[in-house]
Amino acid sequence: MDISPYVGGDASVEGLARVMKLSANEGATGPSPKAIAAYTEAGANLHRYPDGGAAELRAGLAEMYGLDVNRLICGNGSDEIISHLIHAYAGQGDEVVYSEHGFLMYPLGAMASGATPVKAREDNFTATVDGFLAAVTERTKIVFVANPNNPTGTYLPQAELVRLRAGLPDDVLLVIDSAYAEFVSRNDYAPGIEMVSAHDNVVMTRTFSKIYGLAALRLGWAYCPAEVAGVFHRVRGPFNVNTAAQAAGLAALRDVQHTDEARAHNDRWLPWLQDECTRLGLNYIPSVGNFLTIQFEADGPRSADAAQEFLRTKGILPRGIAGYGMPDYLRFTIGLEDENRSVVAALEEFLSAANGG
Ligand SMILES: *Cc1c(COP(=O)(O)O)cnc(C)c1O
Questions:
Q1: What is the pLDDT of residues 221-272, one digit of tens each?
Q2: How far is the CA of 179 from the centre of ligand 1 (A)?
């Protein structure tokens, strides 16, 4: 009963027909038409159980990224993979380390397994190797790094992840959650594939919920050591990934042009939103994901709560992140052009109203 159930981002406002849901980092440009077609086609076979091994999807992933298919696992969202890993490797008396403002599924999953979540200190809303290593004890079983992290949008360069792994005991699993990897274009960034290939205590998780725009289908995957894959197959449900998700995921993966367009959209609008915040005098945490976390005042008419309430009346739904210990911030998913422009216009109106003008 100590667990605060995970609450998804707001999706509707009573009395408003159209809302701009910018609260869950779903890909703004939506799914590939080819994924929608594959999903629709799957309808004819709804009476059949899924392929429990997700063979075609795993083969597609192996081909796309040059991976060993036997080390690829698929899950009902990457959330399922995260929680099974915790169930399998951590329990009563064990510790699961994550960064101070790290993704909430890690502490929730740890508690659900009876393990103790342990926060590693961050520096400027960014996880640090030294912070992680200082949090590790002989009871630590798993270290989770969301890279880039949600809700901060910050990331650790590959060299830092390598340094982190080198500093961990060999029996601690390092899970690199690269849910936003496809959005990141930094020379010093890597999602973690090479590290998984080189070591037997590193897992990289990925999702179809973000750039691929398939959040509704619940589809994630991970690249892991063979032994970890074997453990996952023992604890997962036999048909954990449904047929429509497998088919749509494969089609989405192969529609490289659609993914490139989604990335290009983000590359255009994320810097635009950051520049507009600067123009409005709003601080933000520089992000490499498809979202931006913006700072408001601690209280008074310019607080994050006041902003969220004002935006709500306009049908604009960002994510309040008080649950992450960041009550002064709101997280905005990068939306379509008109959504982004509406956010800025509404923020401008909010700030001027708060000024009494
Ligand atoms: C959105 C998100 C996920 C993905 O979840 P799914 O279960 O695959 O939808 C995982 N990790 C982080 C950090 C996220 O923000």
A1: 999 999 999 999 999 999 999 999 999 999 999 999 999 999 999 999 999 9
A2: 6
Residues in the chain: 357
CB–CB of 127/156 below 8 Å?
yes
Q: What range defines the domain where residue 339 resides?
A: 20-30+257-354
- With a 6 Å cutoff on the Cβ, whether 183 touches ligand 1 is no
As a whole number of angstroms, the distance between CA 139 and CA 161 comes to 21
Per-residue pLDDT at 142: 98
Helical spans, DSSP H, in the chain: 33-42, 55-65, 78-89, 105-112, 129-135, 158-167, 193-198, 226-235, 243-254, 256-280, 304-313, 337-354
> Is the minimum distance from the CB of 177 to ligand 1 under 6 angstroms?
yes
DSSP H or E segment with residue 330: strand 329-333
How far, in Å, is the centroid of ligand 1 from the Cα of 281? Answer: 31
What CA–CA distance (Å, rounded) separates 314 from 340? 13
For the Cβ of 232 lying below 6 angstroms from any atom of ligand 1, the answer is no
Q: Candidates 21, 78, 182, 208: which one to mutate for ligand 1, based on the most atoms within 8 Å of Cβ?
A: 78
User: Model pTM?
Assistant: 0.97
Q: Which atom of ligand 1 is nearest to the CA of 25?
A: 1
Choose the final residue of a domain: 237, 254, 271.
254
* Domain CATH number, residue 186: 3.40.640.10
Atom of ligand 1 nearest to the CA of 151: 15
Q: How far is the CA of 277 from the centre of ligand 1 (A)?
A: 26
Is the model's pLDDT at 357 over the cut of 70? no
**In the predicted model, is pLDDT for residue 11 greater than 90?**
no
Looking at the structure, do residues 230 and 298 belong to the same domain, yes or no? no
Q: Which residue has the CA at smallest separation from atom 11 of ligand 1? A: 179
Give the per-residue SS3 of 83-120.
HHHHHHHCCCCCEEEEECCCCCHHHHHHHHCCCEEEEE
**CA of residue 276 relative to chain centroid, distance:** 24
- Structure confidence by residue, pLDDT tens digits, 43-88: 999 999 999 999 999 999 999 999 999 999 999 999 999 999 999 9
Instruction: For a ligand 1 pocket test, name from 104, 210, 221 the mutation site with the most ligand atoms within 8 angstroms of its C-beta.
Output: 210
